[in-house]
Amino acid sequence: MKPIALFTLPNCKWCEEAKNYLKSKKLKYNLIDLSKNKEALKDCQKHGCKGAPVILIGNSWICGFDKNKINKELGIK
């Protein structure tokens, strides 16, 4: 299984949706708060992501909560 990192911001509706979705699929992930980690924020921006959540699966960056992209990257239906 590819490692998953979930970059979030406080009080972000879509970040909560992403967390709940990953939990519902019983996937383990590292949670990174972009409001507390400026280096992670720079990394997300460097990969073209302008908001949260950002999901990093292996080497693939997904900007925003996109179930189809997440499922495709993880090979789940």
Automatic annotation (TrEMBL):
Transmembrane segments: none annotated. GO terms for molecular function: electron transfer activity. It holds the Pfam family Glutaredoxin. Residues 4-60 form the Glutaredoxin domain. InterPro entries: Glutaredoxin, Grx-like_ET, Thioredoxin-like_sf. Coiled coil: none annotated. Gene3D superfamilies: Glutaredoxin (3.40.30.10). GO terms for biological process: cell redox homeostasis. SUPFAM superfamilies: Thioredoxin-like. This is Glutaredoxin, NrdH/YruB family. The lineage of its organism: Bacteria, Pseudomonadati, Campylobacterota, Epsilonproteobacteria, Campylobacterales.
